[in-house]
Structures are given as structure tokens and as C-alpha cells.
Design goal:
Blueprint: H1 2-13, H2 17-40, H3 51-63, H4 66-98, H5 100-114, H6 121-128, H7 133-157, H8 161-169, H9 174-211, H10 218-227, H11 231-263
Helix pairs in contact: 3-11, 4-5, 4-7, 4-9, 4-10, 5-7, 6-7, 7-9, 8-9, 9-10, 9-11, 10-11
Length: 271
């Protein structure tokens, strides 16, 4: 029995070689087209550096610690801001479920604010808080909290009523009903909502770091490249932003979503 469990865990975390091969082929084709465009000279070399030049710039940024420190500071801000957004959004979403009048009113406001461009919070944050980390965190929270709020509210409200009736017939009520029935039933939808909120937080953070300069962060390194007309540095930071977003989505959210889907038996739809 123990051996079977270990084998199942190995299968669960075994990398998909086909998926990896597809990513490698896509990246190879992209770099090839990039090199071809650079060789043809459609754009000046200042505006379209070669892949080798960008790799050289990445090595320089890593050597002088600009890239490593920038990634570290940016990830800290992302984790702190996103954690606060999940906590606040989840608490308000549960309150919306509990009080129906408040939920209907707040859901309309939340949807309206969800469509609000995240970059528009930056001037408000600068005047209210200033050019510091707290101003950046405020933008990250405001960009993602409403997605968590609406997904929490919608996911729990869409729990099949038969689950709730069955639980009540067995004596569940109040917090126990929420903890052991409603939240587990809503978990697949909640994971998707949190994944979406993370993407909102990620692009809001980079925009905030560009405009709220604090001398640290990937957004600041991108801003410096723009100020010095260094396209290779701009592309190097863009590659870092893309790579971080891809890795976090693949290694954290996609794995978590697949694990939840398998646990809830939802993968049977793909069979």
C-alpha cells in the first residue's frame, strides 16, 4: 500500500516531457526568427539587438546584482501584496455571502473596480502614500483584491444546493457548514480566481515599480533601460518578467489546480 502511494506521488510530480519539448521548440523558433530579423536589418541594431547581445546584457545585470536584487525585491513585494489581497478579498467575499444585501451591492462595485486600469491607481497612491514600498503594495492590492473578492463570492454562491441540504440534514450548520462543505466545494473555482488575481497583481506591480521609482525592483531596472535608450536591457528585463510569470504559473498555480481537480474527480471530464 505504501509503495503504491509513493508511485502515485512520483507520477504526480513527474514532468511532462511533451510539454517541455513543445516549450523548447517554441523558444527555439522564436529566437531563430528574432536572429533572422536582426540579420536582415529591418530595424536599426539600437532598436533590435541580437539575442547574443541580450544574453550579454543579462550576464552583466546578474554580475552587477541589478537583476538578482531586482528579482528579489520584486518577488517580495508581489508575495506581500498578493497575500494581503487574498486575505482582504477572501474575508470581504465571505462577508458578502453571509449578508446578501451587502453582497449584491458590493459585487456590482467590485466588478466595476475590477475593470479599473491598475496603472490608474499609481497617481492616487503617490499622492496618498508617497514614493515608497507601501505605495507600490497599495497598487498591487487594489489591482488584485477585487478579483479575489468576486471569485470568493461567486464560487461559494454557486455551490450546488444539494450539497448544503445534505450537510444540513446530517446536522452541519454555521461555521462547520462553511468550513467543511461550502469552501471545499468551491475550491476549484476559488483556485482559478486566485490564479487570475495573481496575474493582475503581477502586471500591476511592474507598472507601479516603473512609475514609483524606489531604486530597486525589476520595474526600476526597466525604467533605467528606457532612460538610457538601452533596448538590450529593456528586452533582458522583459525576458525575466516573462520567465518568472511562466515559472510561477506552471510550478505553483497549474500544479495546484491540477491537484485540486484530481482530488475532486474533475479530470474525468477530459477522459
Amino acid at each position: 500500500m505504501q509503495k503504491a502511494i509513493l508511485e502515485a506521488r512520483k507520477q504526480e510530480y513527474r514532468p511532462d516531457t511533451t510539454d517541455i519539448a513543445n516549450v523548447v521548440l517554441f523558444l527555439a523558433a522564436f529566437v531563430g526568427i528574432w536572429q533572422l530579423v536582426s540579420n536582415i536589418g529591418i530595424f536599426p541594431s539600437v532598436l533590435m539587438p541580437t539575442p547574443a547581445k541580450v544574453i550579454e546584457t543579462i550576464a552583466r545585470l546578474v554580475t552587477d546584482s541589478s537583476m538578482t536584487v531586482g528579482i528579489g525585491v520584486t518577488m517580495w513585494r508581489l508575495l506581500a501584496g498578493f497575500a494581503m489581497a487574498v486575505g482582504i478579498g477572501g474575508a470581504v467575499g465571505l462577508t458578502m455571502v453571509k449578508f446578501q444585501g451587502f453582497g449584491k451591492t458590493m459585487s456590482s462595485f467590485a466588478v466595476g473596480l475590477l475593470t479599473f486600469p491598475s496603472i490608474a491607481w499609481v497617481p492616487f497612491s503617490i499622492l496618498l502614500i508617497g514614493f515608497n514600498d507601501f505605495g507600490i503594495l497599495f497598487v498591487v492590492i487594489m489591482a488584485s483584491v477585487f478579483s479575489v473578492m468576486t471569485s470568493t463570492y461567486g464560487s461559494i454562491r454557486n455551490v450546488p444546493p444539494i450539497y448544503i441540504r445534505a450537510a444540513k440534514n446530517m446536522g452541519a450548520s454555521g461555521f462547520a457548514l462553511l468550513r467543511y462543505v461550502m469552501i471545499p466545494a468551491a475550491t476549484p473555482s476559488l483556485i482559478m480566481g486566485i490564479r487570475q488575481a495573481w496575474s493582475f497583481a503581477w502586471h500591476a506591480l511592474i507598472g507601479a515599480e516603473i512609475l514609483i521609482t524606489t531604486l530597486y525592483g525589476l520595474g526600476h531596472v526597466l525604467h533605467v533601460g528606457r532612460e538610457f535608450n538601452d533596448m538590450s536591457q529593456i528586452i533582458a528585463v522583459m525576458i525575466a518578467i516573462f520567465a518568472i510569470g511562466l515559472l510561477v504559473d506552471r510550478l505553483v498555480f497549474m500544479r495546484l489546480e491540477e491537484k485540486v481537480r484530481a482530488r475532486w474527480g474533475l479530470n474525468q471530464h477530459n477522459e
